[in-house]
Structure formats: C-alpha cells, structure tokens
Amino acid sequence: MNDSRLRILLVVMLPLSAMAVRAYSPPPSWDPMLMLNVTLNASNQLAIETTSFIAPLTVAPGVYDSTNETYDFTVVSFDPAQPYAVLNDTAYSREMGWYDAVNDDFYTTYATQIGTNYVWIEKTGGSPELNTYTVSEDQTGNPGTPYTPIFGAEGSSTKWLWDGFMDHNANAVALAYLTASNQLFTATYHLYVGDAQGNPVSGFRGTTTTWSWRGPAAAVVPATVIAWSNSQITVSWAATVTNLTLFSVDSLAETNWIIVTNPPVFARGHATVTLLPSSTQTFFRLQLNL
Known about the structure:
This protein is mainly beta.
C-alpha cells in the first residue's frame, strides 16, 4: 500500500457538528438514450434490436481526490433523501432502455397475440458487480417511486416483468469494484412470454441479448467515503480491506481514542458504519491494523 493511502486510512477525522450539505446534484438523466425495440412477429417469436454499443458509466457526482484516493459526497452529490441516492458511490448509466417503437406500449401493439400474458426479462449472466434499478418517473425526470432493485440486485428476483413502455433502467457499479481503467461490465438477458407469475407460456419463443457498459478511463477506488445528512453520518471503505478499526475522540488533544462499536454493514462493495449526530464535536480515526 502506498504512503498516501496509508495516511488517509490512519487519519480520517470528521466533526459531527458539521452537518450541512452544501449542494445536491440534479437527478440522473436518461439522455442521451439508446432505445432497443422489442417485437413479436406473426410466428410468436420475440426479438429485440441488437447493438454493439458499449454504454459509458458516469461516476456519481462528488469531489474525487485522486492523490489521497478519497471521494467526498458532502460537496455535491445526489440528495440522500431522494430515490436516486442509491446511485451515490457508483458509476452509473441510464442510457440504454427497452422500447416498443409502434405505440410505446407493447401490450397495445400486440394485444391480439399476447392476450393476458406478459413479457418477462430475466438476467441470465454477466457481471455480478452490475446492479440494476427500475425507475418510475414523470415527464420532468423526477422519480415517482423509489429506484427498485431488479435482475438480482440487492437480493431481488432475476426476473422482471416489463410494463411494455419505454423504460430506462438505471445500471450501476459500486466505485469499490472499479479497480482498473476502462473496465467492461455485461448483462445477458433472456426475454420470454410468461403468465402473471413469470411461468413461460407455450406457443411463444423467446430471445436472448447482451448489453455492455464500460467504466471510466481511470480506476476510481475510494479508500474512505464520508457522507452526512441531517439525520446521520456514514463512514465507509472498500469491503476488501478487512483490517480496519474506527476510533473516536472528543478533542484532538486527547490521547485515549475509543473504539467505535457500531458494527459495519457490508453492501455494494463497501463496509459502512452509520453514526448518529452528537451535540459535541467528535473526531474519527480509521486505523489500519498492521
């Protein structure tokens, strides 16, 4: 481990009294967009447009210090109170989507053929680091419901019932997994016609497609992430670094640092400790146990 990262791990201090977030970024956009048309021919064969396009993953807003390898969301980030805050601490894309080019409603276009059945999309392979969220939003891009994990993300089902409309799902990779330049991530999907429970319906044939995303040109691996809101503070680090201990002290003049006993939660490639605000100023030190 290089000296600059070691210093960050050994000395990370945050006053709990500094609670205000200065600014929040606008919601993530689906523009530019690449919509892939889903069709059902007269022989009941599903198809989807193929593409060799590799969608770029955009690092979530914030200030990244490449020298110290820290990522500060307290300057500009997605508002933690909003549904799209799940994209904080990730590189993401909403560019690619599912589409019916005739009516923008697959179930209207093929009502006679498909009847009371549905198009299901199942993720059957690809990069496990890639998480996908389905998004419901109004015409201004403001989400109407939380970003809901699908395709196996966060323990969800690998099968997703497509609503038949233009859908720009959010695809994201936690920054902790971006360990090399221009990393490639893929997802293979199987589309089929099924009943309301997702059971395949005979008489229809499905299709398979693979989509691709590419990470940023430089690896983004934050050694430590510090974020705060009006209700809590989180300190997180890459889950692959297991020999760390979080300490706290009320004054930097003190020499007796106390171990923080809040257990870390492991998710999305990070170990995260959540802390409640305090009426007194508190400092933290994340120590590497050599």
